[in-house]
Amino acid sequence: MKRSMLFVALLFISAQLFSQNQTNNSSALNAAETLLNSDSKLSIGGYAQIDFNQPLSDGQRQNATLDVHRLVLLFGYRFGEKTSFVSEIELEHVQEVYVEQAFMNHEFLPWLNLRGGLMLVPMGIINEYHEPPTYNGVERPNLDSKIVPTTWREVGLGFTGRLDNASLKYQLYVMNGFNGYDGGGKFRGSDGFRKGRQKGAESFMSSPTLAARIDYYGLPGLKLGLSTYNGKSQSALYDGLADDDDAALAMADSSVVGINMLGFDARYRNGGFEARGQFNVANISNTDEYNELTGSDLGSQMLGWYLEAGYNVLHGNQSGQRLVPFVRYEQYNTHSKTDGNLAVNDKYNRTDVTVGAGWWLTTGTVLKADYQFFSNANDSNSGQFNLGIGIWF
Fold first, then answer.
1. Please, what is the average pLDDT of the chain?
2. pLDDT digits (tens, 9 = 90+) for 45-82
3. Cα separation of 134 and 358, whole Å?
4. How far apart are CA 96 and CA 117, in angstroms?
5. What residues contact 104, with CB distance under 8 A and at least 6 apart?
6. What is the bridge-based pairing of β-strands 222-232 and 273-285?
7. Among 338, 282, 275, 334, CA closest to 306
8. Which of the residue ranges 26-40, 186-200, 202-216, 269-283 would you say has the lowest mean pLDDT?
9. Which domain holds residue 330?
10. CATH of the domain at 174
11. With contact defined as beta carbons under 8 Å apart, do 117 and 102 qualify?
12. Among candidates 134, 175, 129, which has minimal Cα distance to 153?
């Protein structure tokens, strides 16, 4: 926890040091925001990620994989000046089809928009800004896989808006929660909530959850974000439950965990220099009862952070191309704390170092290469070499 507090302190200090001569990045948009800001009645776009991954470990040969990791088609429609619809259709690994987003947005005022449908949970950087040309590295940070289970989206309704006089943007949604139990436990120590994402696919809700985020962009070149997620996981055991069946009610209560997640993130630039960082902590209640019922090993706290820095060596080049060597250091522990008789598993306390570079031929096309060093508190070490192509239009 001391290292986590040090990380937050360093992030704030760095923000102040680099904010003086930076260009304003508050206008940076993700794919959905781009569609919402389009003047066209019908907008079409997309993004794609094609990867080569070669795992490397001592004493063991492993095949490389080549994968059309994702191909996403975006469609937006503007019904009038105030009302729009945004959708993203994702094909993963060539054969899996998902709806990544499908929501309606109605603007009452610039600071008050009603939004409803299948939406991204506004937690962290990558969950909302996950288009391959918007981040360094072939693969997304593992923090955003193990703790913030990117791409995390659920069905909900809420409000969003901008208060430019205060340099603030906010999001506030009521959503369905994770599927924690549906004939068996969905959560586990290795990757937390990831298996519980309902993704709008016949999602069920036994209690609502609240997701909120505030972004501050008042300093040139700097963007700060604070996110929170609060509620309980959902359980199929409540469906059809008789009010007077105390034994069944106790069992259903044991199949639910309470989730309180908090996140802080920062992005900034100074000429060719760019950096970002993120911190997330999730406190989970009722894990002792949940693990006893399901046979799982879910921890009572998950905690992680990363820092990343890069430099565009083509800064000032009139071609508009960017060549960015970077390094990212991340630590994430899905067993930061455990309850009851569950012992902390040190293999879930992980450290990753990623070193590589990205060459942006244009704003929406990038070639990437990096090497990742993986280790954990059990002194297990491995690595992976990655190559990637990223597209966004």
1. 93
2. 999 999 999 999 887 899 999 999 999 999 999 999 99
3. 11
4. 21
5. 83, 84, 85, 115, 116, 117
6. unpaired
7. 275
8. 26-40
9. 2-392
10. 2.40.160.10
11. yes
12. 175
For residue range 141-152, what is the model confidence (pLDDT) as tens digits? 999 999 999 999
- Work out the pLDDT band at 380, boundaries 50, 70, 90: confident
Strands 234-235 and 96-109: unpaired
Q: How many other β-carbons are positioned within 10 Å of the β-carbon of residue 137?
A: 22
Please compute the mean of the pLDDT values over residues 133-141 and round it to a whole number: 97
With helix as H, strand as E and coil as C, how does the chain read?
Answer: CHHHHHHHHHHHHHHHHHCCCCCCCCCCCCHHHHHHCCCCCEEEEEEEEEEEEEEEECCECCCCEEEEEEEEEEEEEECCCCEEEEEEEEEECCCEEEEEEEEEEEEEECCEEEEEEEEECCCCCCCCCCCHHHCCCCCCCCHHHHCCCCCCEEEEEEEEEEEHHHCEEEEEEEECCCEEECCCECCECCCECHHHCCCCCCCCCCCCEEEEEEEECCCCCEEEEEEEEEEECEEHHHCCCCCCCHHHHHHHHHCCCEEEEEEEEEEEEECCEEEEEEEEEEEEECHHHHHHHHCCCCCCEEEEEEEEEEECCCCCCCCCCEEEEEEEEEEEEEEEECCCCCCCCHHHEEEEEEEEEEEEEECCEEEEEEEEEEEECCCCEEEEEEEEEEEEC
Predicted local confidence at residue 243, as pLDDT: 86
Q: Which amino acid is at 54?
A: Q
Q: How many domains does the chain have?
A: 1
Spatial separation of the C-alpha atoms in residues 301 and 260, rounded to whole Å: 10
- Bridge partners (DSSP) of residue 104 are 85, 116
Per-residue buried b or exposed e for 208-222, using 16+ beta carbons within 10 Å of the residue's own CB: ebebbbbbbbebbbb
Structure tokens at 358: 């990205």
Q: pLDDT at position 7, please?
A: 47
Nearest partner of 130 among 11, 45, 29, 264, judged by Cα: 29
